[in-house]
Prior knowledge:
Number of helices: 7
Structural class: mainly alpha
Shape: elongated
Radius of gyration: 21 Å
Strand content: under 5%
Amino acid sequence: MNELLIESLDQxxxxxxxxxxxxxxxxxxxxELYYADLEELHYxxxxxxxxxxxxxxxxxxxxxxxxxxxxxxxxxxxxNGELPINQYYRNQGNAFVQELLKPAIPATxxxxxxxxxxxxxxxxxxxxxxxxxxxxxxxxxxxxx
Length: 145
């Protein structure tokens, strides 16, 4: 707390509150967390997808050796990028399905979703992230055969 006050002093040595613009970037996040109310704190501390994946692998270590699991994660990252886990939404899940359908058949798309969906469930159940699984109950078009 004292370091935040000292670092937020203006050129006259005054500290009219903790002004984030005057803080070094390394301390801005600290100030956000320190001054956040409970709702903001929950939002600011949500783990990124890769962090949740690591936690998921702690529960299911054999998945790390599964090449289809790795391919699925790579494709999701290519389509949607690395975001805080609660920043993935159903529309991104649908976009992911559409991208997968370009080179793949619906059965392959289902397999990819089945590889990734449990990671979101880990965030919801184990890490208590308040969100819905963006990959749940997505509609995958049937084969045209």
